[in-house]
Amino acid sequence: MTDVVFVVGAPRSGTTLLRRMLDSHSHLAGPHEYPLLCTAIEYFRERGLTEVHGFLDLIYSSERFSAWGVERALVERRIVDGIGSVRELVECILDAYLSSRGATTFVDKNIRNIAALESLLAMFPRAKFVHIVRDGRDVALSLRDRKWASYQLGVSPRRDIRHLKGGALLWLDAIGLFNTFIRCYGPLHLRVRYEDLVLAPEKVLSGICEFLGLEYEHRMLKFYSNKDPTMSDKSAVLNHGSLLGQEVTSTRVERFRSSLASGEISAVENLLEDQLRMLGYQVQKPRASVKFDLEYVVGRCLSGPFLWARRIVARHLK
User: Fold this and answer.
1) What is the pLDDT of residue 308?
2) For 155-171, what is each residue's pLDDT tens digit?
């Protein structure tokens, strides 16, 4: 059975940085994210295994998956005698990728995974999960800066992340999903903090390697030296700026303190206080913000042709 490590976390939590570091280990291989496993689970849920070639048509039509460099002919040769399960099909693809990289363990980083943890574990019972968390205040700020309209994790509500409250609630969704999972499968997971990773990368990576049963390799700190062939330059710059092309930096730690007003910080902390404290983050005494809640509701309800009304309401809230 193929060995798989899942890197999971909320969006904008450092999952890509950690994936790149792990990918630099000689025994690990983790391409740029494509939801191969979740796609396979969803595709075959209503179809029989006779639809394998339709599934291959689907994934090979994606530029992201094609960038992995797995030849379709190679996969088809591996399944020519048929497959007995979705896992066997996925393993054929993962093994082909691992062979091309000379690695033994596949690292799967995809935001959709955090909403499908039990299904992923059912497919790969020996899998291990590395959960990276980042200060929810910085996550909410980073999500707002991305200017994405909304985001949804599994069956959780769709969050309007153009506003800090929506980003904060999305962070809570991700934390809640993983907490529910580890109550049943705790020994299979390791939780690390983004802040610890960038402030003491060698210590944190050594701990992850020990969890995975591997020796730490110093080359993991030099991840930026090798271009990731599975990630386009456009995607790297658009979503991560220059951070993936340089040494680890702590400049993004507690960025919210200099980028948010004190009232905004307090309002976010009022939502996240319990989880922040549980994860070891310092929180100032929270106080409720009516303006914060009204701005979020207005942003959710008024858009497009009602933009003028939104501006009027916002002006009166000042």
Assistant:
1) 36
2) 899 999 999 999 999 99
**Tell me: the pLDDT tens digits for 210-252?**
999 999 999 999 998 877 777 765 555 445 555 677 788 899 9
CA end-to-end distance (rounded Å), the chain: 59
Structural domains in the chain plus CATH codes: 3-250 (3.40.50.300), 290-318 (no CATH)
